[in-house]
Each structure stands twice: as C-alpha cells, then as structure tokens.
C-alpha cells in the first residue's frame, strides 16, 4: 500500500492516490484518537490538493469506509499470522485467532468504533463486507476443522463460531477500555479467552 508523502498530486498513479489518502486518514485517526478531521486534512497529509480526494471518495464517510476496510484487512492478516503454525483442527488454532483479535483491537482502539460501531448512517460497501466476512469465516473454518477432528460433524459451525466470536469481541472491548481486572484483580484478557475457549469446546465435545 502506498504511504503518504510530499509528492504532488500529479505524481500519483490512479490507485496510489486513493491508497495514499486512505493511509493518511488512518494515520490522522490513530494520532488523534478520533475521526474528527476534514477531507482537506487528509489531502494535506498525503501532499495533494484539497480537491484530489474527491476523485476517489464521494465524501468523508466514503473515505472512512475505506479506512474501515483497511482495519478489517489488518485484522485478517493478524489472524493469518497467528494461526500459521497451529495444527489444523486444534483448539489452539481457534484460541490463536481469538488472541489475535484481542491484540489487534487493543493495539488499534481508534478503529474499533469505525469497524464495529453504529453503521446506520451509511451503507456498508461490498468490499468492507467482504473484509469483515473474511475475518469471521477464518474463525468458522477453524471451528469446522475442530468439529471434524473431534467427531462433532453434526454441530452447527456458524452458531458455534458466533459464540466464540462474541467471546473474543467482548473481551477485546473490555480490555480496550481497561476494565478486564475490574472485578478480578490481575485478570488477563488473553488468559480468560484461552480458558473460556477450552471450557466451551470441551462442552461441545461432550455434547453438552
């Protein structure tokens, strides 16, 4: 992906300008902790004219959509890296995905609301839907492989995956806001995810 620099608009290839603006907006969000910036701020950050962003983005909301897509892509890559060395069909592969989820959210809290917050103000673009779906279906693939490896082929994989996603998502949100140890001193989000996942999968394995 292109990085923002001080080049003039004319030096960008068609796709590079779009990518540079997305990266510029993402950096502004990461630095400020909010989406309270103007299109001209992203243009300045990318080193292009104030009119340049509108060649690729209808308005600020469409630029934010693209930043959310970038966030989901980063989450997918984090999950892929975490499971690269895990045995297929193992509980460890599922746990690795959950830990990667927590790690990504707590490392990039500025993007949490953008990726998962209220989207009633806009239509979710097809590419963003695809990116968010790829994160979930990576989990579903791992859960399906675990079910087959443990003789639970009759299980509803999507139902199980949603429950495990809710576990990771909930712990990520709590950890992001610094409340993991609110009721239990020294509680750790990663350890809670690991133990809870093992407990959940053991119940599924026993047919509970």
Automatic annotation (TrEMBL):
Highest taxon in the source lineage: Bacteria
Keyword annotations: DNA-binding, Transcription, Transcription regulation
Annotated GO MF terms: DNA-binding transcription factor activity; transcription cis-regulatory region binding
One Pfam family recorded for the sequence: TetR_C_33
Residue ranges for the DNA-binding region feature of this UniProt entry: 38-57
Keyword ATP-binding among record annotations: no
Stretches assigned to the HTH tetR-type domain: 15-75
Matching InterPro entries: Homeodomain-like_sf (IPR009057), HTH-type_TetR-like_transc_reg (IPR050109), HTH_TetR (IPR001647), MT1864/Rv1816-like_C (IPR025996), Tet_transcr_reg_TetR-rel_C_sf (IPR036271)
PANTHER family: HTH-TYPE TRANSCRIPTIONAL REGULATOR RUTR (PTHR30055), TETR-FAMILY REGULATORY PROTEIN (PTHR30055:SF220)
Protein name: TetR/AcrR family transcriptional regulator
Species of provenance: Kineobactrum salinum
Origin organism lineage: Bacteria, Pseudomonadati, Pseudomonadota, Gammaproteobacteria, Cellvibrionales
